[in-house]
Amino acid sequence: MPRLTPRLLHHRDATGRLLLGLAALALWEAVVRLAAVSPLVLPAPSQVAQVLVQSLASGYLVPHVARTLAEVLLGLLLGGTLGFALGLALGESARLRRLLMPYVLLTQVVPKLALAPLFIVWFGFGLLPVVVMTALICFFPLLENTATGLQHTEAAALELFRLLRASRWQTLWRLKVPASLPGILAGVRVAVVLAWVGAVVGEFIGASQGLGAVIVAAQGSMDTPLMFAALALITALGLACYAAVLAVQQRLLQALGTRAPLPA
Amino acid sequence: MHADGAPPAALVLDQVSHTYAGRGAGVQAVSLDVAPGAVQVLVGRSGCGKTTLLKLAAGLLPAQAGQVRVQGQAVTGPQARVGFVFQAPTLLPWLSVADNVLLPIRLHRSPLPPEHARAAALLAQMGLQGLASERPARLSGGQQSRVALARALITQPALLLLDEPFAALDAITREELQQALATLCEARRTAVLFVTHDLAEAVFLADRVCVMHAGRLCASLPIQLPRPRRAALRDSPGFAALCAQLRHELHQPEATASTRAEAEAEASVAASSQPGAA
To answer: How many other CB atoms sit within 10 Å of the CB of residue A137?
Structure first.
């Protein structure tokens, strides 16, 4: 038997993954065709693919994709920035942590879907309520990972900075933040995935544009294949965003000489 | 202060005490001084207060009683003229070796060209030439310890404090690093207070070894071996005899300490029974 190098193993696993996915699609296709399932209930993958290609080629889906993508990116930027900033504050001050943490948790425990009608009242229809919803969902993983990372900075390194008479600001930016970066970036990865959930859920409630709105409209016209097409597109875009963040952070952590914890 | 014009001691501990609430002996009324350029080693069992004493000298812990002076000035916090080496190298993984060495300067200002040159020279003396732009993760444990030593010396401190810096290294690497430290400090006349529980290390490095037990210094042994110290010294009968003597002191501390306490008690009784003496 040839020796399996890590690279070969990696290729073998990737091939296996691909085959598994193809097999599932083939099974789905076969079940739908053999049992003559109505496309209203479950369209065959081939039919979904056809609708997807058609609606992309005709340009019907393009503005919706652009809209959802804009909401995801703006929500991520807003929520991520706020989460990181608040995470810095809570990581640095135990007092602030005791004071604010219950309320931060409150914003996460409240069902976001129930907040959506309220957001429409506050922010009207359009981009803003969806961006706010997305930001609300994204900010927590960054806050949590930043605050936790700062608090777990190695005691000896903190003592070194005290000995070198570093200011609190220097200790934060030149020690605690770089040391917490692997955790903070893991928070970004989670936030990217959640941003898609936030944007689509936000669009369900009160949007005329975006992939979530397409799903709602397709449901109204009983166009199940289009619903599946929109769903497939959301999934593919979500995965692509995750892969992009992963690639950027691997590069970043390598440049910083910190070993990156790889997701499974 | 010094009417004779002699330079003040690099480090003076004057009846210094520090106890932690609810645990351990801490440090109790310890007096000790390290002359400029002298190497003082502190040995003792784990938990005897060695590290606490070092932190008091570094200004990381406040003395609850007594006074700590570095070059004649009272210590109230961490000082620029004091270098410190931890048990672990504690290098920043995202900085290059050279930037780790220059960190003590970079935290306060941009390093000047002579400081870059000094960093390069220190790395060369430590046998790390060519590794300046590497990340610490690519270095061996011994190399990382050398970088930590270079970082402590970059500001040319008058006093270097070391807390079992070589304890985690293998025996051969440890001896190489002891040699490197001895050579560097002899050349620069840096005063050293070195904490260890390795007796051969203590004898090889020290001008004087103090034995610590339960927060007190209970014995002091001058090491009159010739300098510069070289590896061959370790095989000499004098070296072995000093190690044996030190081991004997380490096994005796309870007796010595209690005898001393009794002597002190007697002295205070004697003093109080003579009210007219003062």
So the answer is: 24
